Amino acid sequence: MQKDAPPGGEQPLPPVAIALHKVLCMIASREATSRAAIARLTGLARSTVSQQVDNLIDLGIVQESEANQSVRGRPPRALAVSPLAGTIAVLDVDVAATQLAISDLSGTVLGRDIVDMSVDGGPEELLAAVTERLRSMLAEHGQDTARVRHVVAGLPAPVDFQRGCAVRPPIMPGWDAYPVGDHLRKQFGAPVTVDNDVNLMALGEATQEMADTPLLAIKVASGIGAGIVTADGSVHRGADGAAGDIGHIRASTRGDVICRCGKTGCLEAVASHRAVLADLGIASSSFGDGLHAPRELARLVADSDTRALHRIRQAAAHIGEVVAMLVHTLNPRMLVLGGPLTELQDEILSGVRAAVYEQALPLATRKLIITSSQLGTDAGITGAIALASREVFSQSGMARLLAEA
């Protein structure tokens, strides 16, 4: 389980019994789905396991049903987190739109939606729309708002993880230090975790069957960021939440290009999706169609437009140069590229691969897997649900869950 504790200044809760914690963690992670398997894997006495399982069933947190197996004799009983135990609500904010999802505590998605609203209107307007839509989604799926157990919000900016707010975000005017966590906590009466969107993307990718850690995720969108999942499955955020903010590392060429942060020559200013669109003269939207730009760029690439291909390869070279430094510094086992620019074709992937293998030493690359996102635009939502589930079944989260059951 990840050891990061959700921020918010909440009063410490009494510790959950070790045996109960072990049993519920086994069931929640699906590592064990029967009483016998839990006893075998934890070393707890069968009587202790049965006592804790019965307690969890009585509280409505766990359910036990006949397993879908054809066996002789008494049918086996399978344990799982009850779908009635509570709900998780998550949001993944991007510059032009916000993805929403609700899931049960086992991570099964119950509903999804998108709020088509730019971050430029400020946090209060967007969060009001998001809150309203999440409440509607909960009602539509028969979920009580009072039983929301955790909320996770991803922001496309450096995030102060403890305070639950963005820190001087270049692409989010009016969001600096706005208490996103406190705002959502008041709306849902549940613990809230606010994190960087690429951290959530990295967590989402790390949940996939073929994933390996340490994992480095790179998102190339309106900005450029990195998320780092360590070998033990936790996120490396840095001392102040600025880890992975690679969009403002200076590119080796085009040093005269002014970035939105006020500096010149930033990677974001020369290699982001927004920078490529601007150089090719593609409008970000047309008649309110937010997908106009990526569709137009995809059309140019499909038509083998020389300018478009050249500009994308330029961006790939700049990104690859910075990523090669990260590979040396972090020595990841897997490098995942995501975002609208990387979804076009293999140009970005091949360009980054070429730069990394050319500039990084063989020791750092001999076992490195470089690939595109398996989840695409779903990565952030998947990671947010995974993070929320970890928090719900952490020591303090379980104490809260038991107290509210």
Automatic annotation (TrEMBL):
Gene3D superfamilies: 3.30.420.40, Winged helix-like DNA-binding domain superfamily/Winged helix DNA-binding domain. InterPro entries: ATPase_NBD, ROK, WH-like_DNA-bd_sf, WH_DNA-bd_sf. Belongs to the ROK (NagC/XylR) family. PANTHER family: GLUCOKINASE, ROK (REPRESSOR, ORF, KINASE) FAMILY. This is ROK family protein. The lineage of its organism: Bacteria, Bacillati, Actinomycetota, Actinomycetes, Streptosporangiales.
